[in-house]
Amino acid sequence: MNFFTNIKKFLKNIFKKEDSLKIDKYTEEYLKYFDHLFFRAGNTSGFDFLYTLLRVQGITSGHWDAFVEAEEAIMDFSEMLRSLQKQKGMEKRSIQLGMLLYCHSTEMSAPYEILANLLRCCQEQPYKFRPFSRLATPIGKQGLFGKSRPPSPKKKIEHLRELAQKCGEDNLLEIIDGYFRNDIRNAFYHSDYTITENEFRIIEEGNPTTEIVNLEELSSILAKCFAFYSAFFITYRNARRAIGNGKKYHIRPNFEVVEILTNSEELLSGFKVHFPSGTHAFFEREDYEGTKGLNFMCEKEGISLNVGDLNKYQEAHSWVVDGKPFEQTDTRYNEYGYWRPIVLNRHGELIESEVSKIVEDKIVRGALFYIYATGHLAIEFILKSKEQIFKGEVYNKPNKGFPRIEIKNIYNTENEYIYDGTLFLQNKDIESVKEGLNVINDFVEEIQNFGYKFVFSMKYEIYKDASRISTFPPKNKDKKVRTIIISMEDPTSTLFTSTLSIFPKQDWSIKSDWIK
Length: 516
What we know:
The chain is an alpha+beta fold. The chain has helices at residues 3-14, 17-44, 46-54, 66-85, 91-107, 109-122, 153-166, 170-177, 182-189, 215-245, 310-315, 348-358, 362-374, 430-449; strands spanning 60-61, 137-139, 147-149, 193-195, 199-204, 207-214, 249-252, 256-262, 268-274, 280-286, 290-294, 296-298, 303-305, 320-321, 324-325, 342-343, 378-385, 394-399, 402-412, 417-424, 454-458, 469-472, 481-484, 496-497.
């Protein structure tokens, strides 16, 4: 029985029936929030999100993962609590054990570190494997190996508050403030408390009237705490499972391929980055086995990867996995409903020049550039009509020699329908690309023959809009100057860019006026 099953049972056994209903209510509320936070972090800063889920650190051998040990302890406590619940007259002991679990949960370092890095991801800040290091208190003389006292949970929470306020995630601290009581935690840890039939009494320096917490209020605090950690662990595990069950290979715009590593439970356990220079870097974490890796370094802020031969790395302009060319089949660059400029960190002009030498047709050039620059063997196109062309949300049409044409209805009103389409290729030679474009043209003509009126557009064409190219009076009479005018409002006149951050608008969901 795993930890998540145990804690659910524990939550229902430690309290009375009405308290268990409260926990279910809190857990549901917190699950919704964590779904939002994890999704936002992953969508904003993908690679740092990966580091966060893996808790990337230095190399360790054997069982040095306190997070795993903490989960085991909670499992043991939950079984003890279930056993106590079956015995009469054990109410006080149940409260004491519940308080021990409360303190144990709020002391765990890993959840605070993960939350801190999730909030950093939301701000596009690099991963920090020790996000609270500046809060540590020096002990004795400080030098290269000087010791320090780690910050208390209270200090960590205050730092989380700062991070949350910067990215508008104040709701996280509202939830934490609902259960975290430093006075209760300290009183129990230092044995400065008593428990009566109705009260948890905090006693400081022998003063019997310091503070009284009604057991009903204490029950609510514990319920919120256990619901918080239950929701956190469930979402954390779900995120690792979602990535573990997703695509195994992901390409990056600098010609690197990220391979996702998983454990026996199909949970994310590590990553391997294949560099175009032929080398790789990797990190992997296994419960009870420790961590292992190669060609990576944890820095004060961020993780640095050793790319190998720098000249080979900089000269390469294609993706490689284990020394072999890598191509993505049955995938596309954009999620359905989106149209982004192609993000390419280097060699964009070189690829454009190579494509231009191969073929003159601007549509074929655009299709080839898309394939060479993104690594996806596909052609993306758009249809806009004033009437419904296809029924349902997805339309698939198999074609001889090609996996299929896939079209999704991404927008519809009474007067307008927009369809986002893809033709998936099997290889990237020019004849296959031309044949694929012919298949799309035949498909469009077939729709026209049914009497539908619509606007059809390929997403990526080199010099799609002639207004982008203008010739100015040259400084040297023997040379002509070509200027490319880039629109900062939409992707239709921007073939590729080194980063999307230069654009004032970051909403790349397809707009009707982009389709002309």
